[in-house]
């Protein structure tokens, strides 16, 4: 009996080992394409069975051995389990990018524990390549404006090997995917490629270069129209923007190395995106809430208004309004994003005569006015102009690329007087206590935003007219301080002075605005105070608010305020431009920054910042990306008088566009830096 059991156990072990061996067998082999061309990628797919789910395959490597064998080292791994002894099918696929370079007859051999039990051929031919010295021997798919295609360059041979384009000479060793782009009208074309795999693909736009009996294997500078830029926000996106005439063009997707082969999508959009075509139509009385320049575009690059040129690197929004009769147009913008210095510009409609002219800059003859720049001091921007019937554009923009934000904007025509009244004009918190109350009367609502953080107002605004009680509450009781709060309704405003702990020192802060050809000077209302205004041309005033007639020119304006607590004086430089209807005051003289330059630009390793200082002092150098994020540690340097040069390392930065800011005691300077 014992011998019978021993024999049976031996048979079971023998059968188990045979089943295990058979269950690791390759039953199907597929090579795609069946006979690849030399240099062409191909895939090997294996199908078979494991004795249980505890087994898996791990590709190790592949080598070419004598006799034209392609030896595949594929390791069979077994996990600890437990796993049921159930035959488990498997499929294993491996792509050989770039294929085999030498034509011939090859056979597969397997190492690592796999058995082969199939009648499928383990051998294949690698064919000699056709004449790929020119891309013109191949039929290209055609793309048009508005199309989106999905593609890959996995199985494309390497026909174009060298590119001389705008970002320097490049040798690309991957296979290229080529599309023929047909453009049926003169237009701006935007090509957007999104890379779907972990590969590095580039995109080029070249002329239609295919001519009979002329090989083409190298892109020359005179044929290259554009090379894609890397999206600074998403490194997997490549973009080209260019104006094209009617005709045919070639779009080429190529990779840096033979392993840069993968999937992508390509979207083609046509049509202008400039001041004229991006404008949204508005009407008198429109109130647009929660507008935004975030995630927008910078399509209007500069404004020449009055005597100044305003360079604009921030994203912009444009509105178009048509006036059927002579109208007093009042545009009011309230910025909702803290610290974002957005501006308004009023532009004549004649700047856009037709849709075939791109407008990215506003010359002086078209600029009707620009809201004064006030930095973070106020969130309110306004333009008030008497205008004849016609079409006008209103642009919302910013000087800095990092300045982006949300805002509300209102368009009023021949605005009805508000009759704004705020009482009392002074609130004094002389001791610890609760809230105080302001009474506001208007015909159609009001708004206000305190400039300091120690006060809470409720409500801050009202959308309808009537009487509103505003509660003013201190957040803390410590210290002696004061603040001016300005309430606005349409074109009218009124200021309340709030003091704490008996603080009554005079406030000499003032604002300057313009109505038609008169300058309006305004100081906050302060009890028991006297006002003394002095212009550099000899004109004077002793009112808190006054209207002064001034000829075109530059004036120094000083205000002295005196009360029982003392005297305060402040001065500003007022510039009155020489054209009739512009908002043409620059409220504060800005010191000029010494000469500065950034070079080399573009760069791929290091850059230098050079500036000339009139005196010794400290300088801070910072680098930002286009979203406003500081991407490298800022430098604070003590510099000598005269020319100073500082090295700026860009090695940690990816390819893209950055902003370099130099801040000195005399001002700041910002310049774009392109890293290749």
TrEMBL record:
Can you give the residue ranges of the PKD domain? 527-576
Q: Can you name this protein?
A: PKD domain-containing protein
Q: Which residues form the signal peptide?
A: 1-21
Q: Which UniProt keywords apply?
A: Signal
């Amino acid at each position: 009996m014992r011998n019978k059991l021993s024999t049976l156990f031996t048979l079971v072990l023998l059968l188990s080992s045979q089943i295990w061996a058979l269950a690791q067998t390759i039953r199907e082999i597929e090579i795609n394409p069946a006979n690849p061309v030399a240099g062409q990628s191909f895939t090997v797919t294996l199908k078979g069975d494991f004795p249980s789910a505890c087994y898996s395959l791990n590709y190790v490597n592949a080598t070419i051995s004598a006799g034209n064998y392609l030896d595949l080292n594929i390791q069979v791994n077994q996990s600890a389990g437990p796993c049921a002894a159930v035959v488990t099918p498997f499929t294993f696929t491996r792509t050989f990018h770039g294929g085999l370079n030498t034509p011939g007859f090859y056979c597969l051999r397997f190492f690592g524990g796999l058995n082969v039990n199939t009648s499928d051929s383990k051998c294949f031919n690698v064919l000699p390549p056709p004449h790929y010295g020119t891309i013109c021997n191949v039929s290209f798919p055609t793309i048009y404006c508005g199309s989106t295609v999905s593609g890959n360059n996995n199985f494309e041979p390497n026909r174009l090997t060298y590119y001389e384009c705008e970002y320097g000479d490049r040798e690309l060793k991957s296979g290229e995917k080529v599309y023929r782009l047909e453009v049926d009208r003169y237009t701006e074309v935007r090509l957007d490629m999104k890379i779907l795999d972990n590969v590095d693909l580039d995109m080029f736009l070249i002329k239609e270069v295919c001519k009979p009996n002329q090989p083409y294997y190298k892109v020359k500078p005179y044929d290259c129209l554009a090379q894609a830029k890397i999206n600074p926000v998403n490194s997997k996106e490549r973009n080209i923007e260019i104006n094209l005439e009617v005709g045919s063009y070639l779009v080429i997707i190529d990779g840096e190395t033979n392993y840069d082969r993968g999937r992508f999508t390509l979207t083609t959009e046509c049509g202008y995106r400039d001041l004229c075509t991006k404008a949204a139509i508005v009407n008198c009385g429109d109130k647009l809430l929660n507008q935004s320049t975030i995630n927008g575009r910078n399509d209007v690059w500069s404004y020449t208004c009055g005597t100044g040129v305003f360079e604009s690197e921030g994203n912009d929004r444009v509105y178009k309004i048509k006036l059927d009769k002579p109208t007093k147009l009042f545009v009011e913008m309230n910025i909702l994003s803290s610290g974002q210095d957005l501006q308004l510009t009023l532009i004549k409609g004649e700047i856009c005569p037709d849709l075939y002219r791109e407008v990215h800059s506003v010359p002086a003859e078209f600029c009707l006015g620009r809201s004064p720049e006030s930095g973070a001091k106020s969130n309110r921007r306004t333009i008030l102009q008497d205008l004849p019937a016609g079409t006008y554009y209103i642009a919302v923009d910013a000087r800095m690329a990092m300045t982006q934000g949300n805002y509300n904007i209102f368009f009023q025509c021949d605005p009805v007087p508000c009759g704004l009244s705020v009482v009392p004009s002074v609130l004094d918190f002389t001791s610890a206590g609760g809230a105080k109350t302001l009474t506001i009367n208007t015909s159609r609502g009001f708004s206000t935003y305190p400039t300091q953080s120690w006060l809470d107002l409720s409500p801050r605004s009202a959308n309808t007219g009537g009487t509103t009680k505003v509660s003013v509450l201190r957040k803390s009781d410590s210290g002696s301080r004061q603040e001016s709060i300005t309430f606005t309704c349409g074109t009218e405003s009124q200021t309340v002075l709030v003091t704490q702990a008996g603080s009554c020192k005079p406030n000499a802060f003032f604002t300057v605005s313009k109505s038609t050809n008169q300058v309006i000077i305004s100081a906050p209302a302060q009890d028991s105070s006297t006002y003394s205004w002095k212009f550099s041309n000899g004109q004077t005033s002793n009112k808190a608010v006054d209207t002064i007639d001034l000829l075109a020119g530059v004036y120094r304006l000083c205000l002295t305020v005196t009360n029982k607590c003392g005297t305060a004086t402040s001065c500003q430089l007022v510039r009155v431009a020489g054209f009739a209807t512009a908002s043409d005051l620059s409220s504060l003289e800005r010191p000029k920054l010494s000469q500065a330059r950034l070079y080399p630009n573009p760069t791929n390793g290091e850059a230098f910042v050079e500036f000339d200082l009139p005196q010794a002092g400290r300088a801070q150098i910072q680098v930002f990306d286009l979203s406003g994020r500081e991407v490298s540690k800022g430098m604070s340097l003590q510099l000598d008088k005269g020319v100073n040069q500082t090295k700026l390392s860009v090695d940690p930065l990816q390819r893209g566009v950055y902003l370099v800011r130099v801040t000195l005691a005399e001002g700041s300077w910002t310049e774009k830096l392109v890293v290749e």
